[in-house]
């Protein structure tokens, strides 16, 4: 039985890159993640995707580089659009699903502007929708628009892909042998325990709107299918 009808999947730019040889794109990584997403679609789930731009540029290095933060964030947002186009073409090559990239700012020669009701309409029609360009505003990362778009387009939950970690730990498992993996977690715990797996602004938005979140290891095959079947870490309000 499927637990969710409509999901937003949040990927980091590193999901399609190669951290070893530092290539911003990696063909094998792209093939893997597109296959995983197609498996979710084949279960009958409506899928929206948002991908970060960290494989290309992150605005938070602005101070180190002596450049303006807002401009650095613009460059980061453009990175998310490049990744979204790469993702669209990889998904298209592997499936017959219709795909739409919707950007937060005008990019009309290769993507359409995000309009909430139009995005909902595409999801209703079973298209894969990729949200690109974040919110179009600086000083945040893609975590916040991931939660925002999920709520706006009435997704039942958000799945947050993490590389090489099975979920949220009480401390860094690479440094602490006693690190404990949380099976379930209240939104508040992210904040009070200062768990930095996602931006706290995004967690607060999810909390306010009761959006369930699942953090999963994207290098574990079929992890998203397990979540759709009701297995895996669950972050929600337990109050
Ligand atoms: N960004 C932004 N506003 C947004 C979304 C993203 O300014 O609404 C910028 C920000 O500089 C961020 C970069 O785009 O660092 C790339 O996104 P992110 O860091 O979330 O990428 P990820 O770590 O998920 O690959």
Describe what this molecule looks like in 3D.
The protein has 239 residues and is of the alpha/beta class. It has a single domain, classed as Carbamate kinase (3-Layer(aba) Sandwich), CATH 3.40.1160. Helices cover 36% and strands 17% of the residues. It contains 8 helices and 9 strands. Strands 4-3-5-2-1-6-8 form a 7-stranded parallel sheet, sandwiched between helices. Helix 1 links the parallel strand 1 and strand 2. The longest helix is centred in the middle third of the chain and has 26 residues. The radius of gyration is 17 Å and the shape is globular. The model has no long low-confidence stretch (mean pLDDT 92). Bound molecules: uridine-5'-diphosphate (UDP). Uridine-5'-diphosphate binds next to helix 3.
């Amino acid at each position: 039985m499927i637990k969710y009808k409509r999901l937003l999947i949040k990927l980091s730019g590193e999901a399609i890159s190669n951290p070893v040889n530092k290539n911003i794109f990696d063909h094998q990584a792209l093939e893997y993640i597109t296959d995983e997403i197609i498996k979710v679609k084949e279960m009958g789930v409506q899928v929206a995707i948002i991908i970060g731009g960290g494989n290309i540029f992150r605005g938070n290095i602005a101070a180190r580089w002596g450049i303006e933060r807002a401009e650095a964030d613009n460059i980061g947002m453009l990175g998310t659009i490049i990744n979204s186009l790469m993702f669209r073409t990889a998904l298209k090559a592997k499936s017959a699903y219709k795909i739409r990239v919707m950007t937060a700012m005008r990019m009309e020669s290769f993507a359409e502007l995000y309009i909430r009701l139009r995005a909902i309409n595409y999801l209703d029609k079973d298209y894969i929708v990729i949200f690109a360009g974040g919110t179009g505003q600086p000083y945040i990362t893609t975590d916040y628009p991931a939660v925002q778009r999920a709520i706006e387009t009435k997704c039942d939950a958000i799945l947050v892909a993490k590389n090489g970690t099975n979920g949220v730990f009480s401390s860094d498992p690479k440094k602490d042998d006693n690190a404990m993996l949380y099976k379930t977690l209240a939104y508040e715990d992210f904040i009070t325990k200062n768990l930095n797996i996602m931006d706290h602004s995004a967690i607060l938005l999810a909390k306010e709107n009761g959006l369930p979140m699942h953090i999963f290891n994207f290098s574990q095959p079929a992890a998203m299918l397990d979540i759709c079947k009701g297995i895996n870490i669950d972050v929600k309000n337990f109050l």
